[in-house]
Write a structure and sequence with these properties.
By secondary structure, the chain is an alpha/beta fold. Helix content is about 50%, strand content about 10%. It contains 11 helices and 8 strands. The protein has helices spanning about 15, 75-85, 120-130, 135-160, 160-165, 170-185, 190-210, 225-250, 265-290, 295-310, 310-325; strands at about 25-30, 35-40, 40-50, 55-60, 65-70, 70-75, 90, 110. The chain is globular. Mean pLDDT is about 85; it is low at about 1-10 and about 100-110.
């Protein structure tokens, strides 16, 4: 008797699951206290109710990454389908703030990247053509930092809700702050100085955000339990999911960073996420904290803004441009 595989009879072809480009996908999911499984060629999550078990479908072809929080489990068959669809899966701590892979003063997320030998080769080959040159790698870091500022300008100049809270890049103080920072980017002679410059700008933006939202006494603390710090952690890790997706789709290993260090795990993910973090996650964290929104409401706001301002497209455009860049100074 011919044996059949119950997991493949109703499954879609792998090519069908990748019809939607990663840069156009709309969904990031955070799940907790549930079981993720495969059923009839679909990926579902199962929750237990007092009277019945409830099944919910996950549209994996339109999903970039999946965060699995407290009390979750996933089956091998579900992971196979997620891999076919090119969805990154991350195990994290409760509330979407990853606590695994902990190291002193740093918190990491454990990303499981889909395995595929058929990703494009041109981007990793282009990236490696200049990555070993210290000067070119520094130039690439400066380009990413400049892109970060320009993306912030565009978002803050267009968004009416941000403007109501004073996040307006046309404001004289903010415009001056961004202009000064961008002019200093070109003057930095090593990556460490560039990182320090980035930290000073972010610190200044925290101050602006705290003043605009009347969030007095704010101090950035990655282990802080106040809402602003909690939302910043949560939103940043959503951005890291987009950064990891970008690097994986383009076939560039996460170790080939331009700013965050050659030996730091996942460093390229942090580089890419920085392009959009300050523009979207930072203001939303303070606005949602000042309005006392729940973590779920904040997460939904982040995802809406990522989609509205095409954050993933921006990441892809910047990284692809660097990978294929030939006109180095």
């Amino acid at each position: 008797m011919k044996k059949t595989n119950p997991y493949t009879e109703n499954s879609l072809a792998s090519s069908d699951l990748k019809t939607i480009l990663h840069s156009k996908r709309a969904n990031i999911y955070y799940l907790q206290y549930c079981r993720i499984l495969q059923k009839d060629g679909r990926v579902l999550y199962l929750t237990e109710d007092d009277k019945a078990n409830l099944y919910f479908n996950i549209p994996i072809a339109n999903t970039t990454c999946l965060l699995l929080g407290t009390g979750t489990s996933i089956t091998q068959a579900a992971m196979r389908l997620l891999s076919q669809a090119g969805v990154l899966v991350g195990f994290c701590g409760g509330g979407g703030t990853p606590l695994f892979m902990g190291a002193e003063k740093e918190i990491f997320i454990e990303w499981l990247a889909p395995q595929s030998e058929y990703r494009p080769t041109e981007y990793i080959q282009g990236w490696m053509s200049w990555w070993f040159d210290d000067d070119k790698r520094l130039q690439a870091a400066k380009i990413m930092q400049s892109a970060r500022i320009e993306f912030l300008r565009r978002v803050w100049s267009r968004d009416k809700d941000f403007k109501q809270f004073g996040f307006d890049s046309n404001d004289q103080h903010i415009a001056s702050l961004l202009d000064e920072h961008k002019s200093k980017i070109l003057l930095q002679d090593n990556t460490m100085h560039l990182l320090q410059l980035e930290a000073r700008l972010t610190k200044a933006l925290y101050k602006v955000a705290a003043q605009n939202t009347n969030y007095s006494g704010f101090t950035r603390d990655h282990e802080g339990i106040d809402k602003a710090n909690s939302f910043l952690n949560h939103g940043n890790y959503l951005a890291y999911g987009l950064g990891a997706t970008t690097a994986w789709v383009l076939g560039i290993p996460h170790g080939f960073a331009v700013m965050h260090g050659k030996t730091r795990r996942g460093a390229l993910v942090f580089d890419i996420a920085d392009i959009i973090k300050d523009a979207i996650v930072l203001p939303l964290s303070f606005i949602c904290a000042s309005e006392n929104l729940s973590e779920q409401e904040f997460r939904q706001e982040c995802l809406n803004y990522f989609t509205q301002y095409k954050a993933l497209d921006e990441m892809f455009d910047v990284v692809k441009g660097l990978a294929l860049k030939t006109d180095w100074i």
